[in-house]
Design a protein that fits this description.
Blueprint: H1 2-7, E1 11-16, H2 21-33, E2 37-42, H3 51-62, E3 67-70, H4 85-113, E4 116-121, H5 125-128, H6 134-154, E5 159-166, H7 179-188, H8 197-208, E6 219-222
Parallel strand pairs: 1-2, 3-4, 4-5, 5-6
Length: about 230
């Protein structure tokens, strides 16, 4: 996402608990390309008390916030009856509560500018369900409800709110899948393949750009036709 947006000319601020070699390489790539840029700010987004100071500091350093991509999240596979209460709470806080609270603080900047874009990263399991992912599915379904309602709430201010629902994509969150499981998922899809991270990134770029200016309150599914 960072690379795609920087290539499109955006000044990207990547927020995570810690940076990574991949992010550093992406920032160097953006610097050499000379179109956009990638900055890093460290923050544990599950720490709700840190969100307001984070946004305040970002506004002080970079100015008004134009776009927010709520992409932070964690998976939690397992049968509900055996999941620890603490694990359930952690997943709900990071996947649901944190995006809502972060959006609240960022919206203040967008409302003053009377423009802005929010993109929430949901999942196809929000609507299809998947055995062993009941808590994760619940958090992603809540993001879709949040997306639709917030879109109506802030639309008159020129702010769009949309969600993306990727299928199983080759990221850190799906590293537990075996090659056999990946093949089965691919065979179930209309295109007989799994989507790639770049497919999600390009959809984010579309929604943030001028082409997405009249799209709000909707969910775009990116799953190579798995749910077709």
């Amino acid at each position: 996402m960072c690379v795609a947006l920087a290539d499109a000319g955006y000044r990207v601020i990547a927020v995570a608990r810690k940076s990574s070699p991949e992010l550093a390489a992406s920032a160097d790539h953006a610097l050499r390309a000379g179109r956009g840029s990638i900055e890093f700010r460290g923050c544990d987004l599950s720490n709700l008390e840190a969100l307001a100071p984070l946004v305040r500091d970002l506004r002080a350093d970079f100015g008004a916030v134009y776009g927010l991509v709520n992409n932070a999240g964690m998976g939690a596979s397992g049968i509900l009856s055996t999941m620890r209460d603490q694990e359930i709470q952690r997943v709900i806080q990071l996947n649901t509560v944190s995006p809502i609270m972060l959006s609240k603080h960022v919206l203040k900047s967008m409302m003053s500018q009377r423009e802005g874009r929010i993109v929430n990263i949901a999942s196809i399991v929000a609507s299809t369900g998947y055995s062993g992912l009941s808590v994760y599915s619940a958090t992603k379904a809540s993001l879709i409800g949040f997306t639709r309602s917030l879109a109506r709430e802030v639309g008159q201010l020129g702010i769009t709110v949309n969600a993306l629902a990727p299928g199983f994509v080759a990221t850190e969150m799906t590293h537990e899948l075996t090659e056999s499981q990946r093949q089965k998922i691919a065979q179930r899809s209309a295109l007989k393949r799994m989507p790639e991270p770049v497919d999600v990134a390009r959809s984010v770029e579309f929604l943030l750009g001028d082409a997405g200016r009249n799209i709000t309150g909707t969910v775009i599914t990116i799953d190579a036709g798995n749910t077709a």
